[in-house]
Structure formats: C-alpha cells, structure tokens
Design brief:
single chain; 91 residues; elongated
Amino acid sequence: MGHGITEAQVHAAADALVEAGDRPTVERIRAHLGTGSPNTVTRYLDSWWGGLGVRLAAVRASAAIPAAPAEVVDLGHLAGGKPLCRPRGAI
C-alpha cells in the first residue's frame, strides 16, 4: 500500500500556489504539502506543467464565447437542424 503523495495533491498544490501569485516550484510544493520527495514532486510537477497549456486554452475558449441562455441551447438540441417554429396557421 502506497503512503506517499499523489499526483492530484501536487497538482492541487501547484494550482493553489498560482492562485496565491507564486510560481510553483518543487520547494514551494513540498512546503505547501509538508511532505514529498523531490523526485516525486518533480515528476508530478512536470505533468502539471505539461497540461497547463490545454487548461489555459480551455479557459480562454470558454471566456471568448458568451454562453447562450439555456432555453436557446435546449431549443437548438430539440430542433435537430429543423426550423424552430412553424408558419402561422400551419398546425
């Protein structure tokens, strides 16, 4: 049974450091967690850096396109490419 730190803990610590305005480093993450071997933290911190670009791109994409009201999204899904309403008297 493992008893060391997890990748999720290192990623959460790195996120917390960034939120606090600090650059995540091995030393800062170890201080934040109060434990962790430098080799393990380095490996997990490298994976955090590796996924950073994808996470930032996702945030930018969601911030660049305003969300449509839920009612509009629901109507679009229901229509399935067909007109959303019928002409008057065509019932």
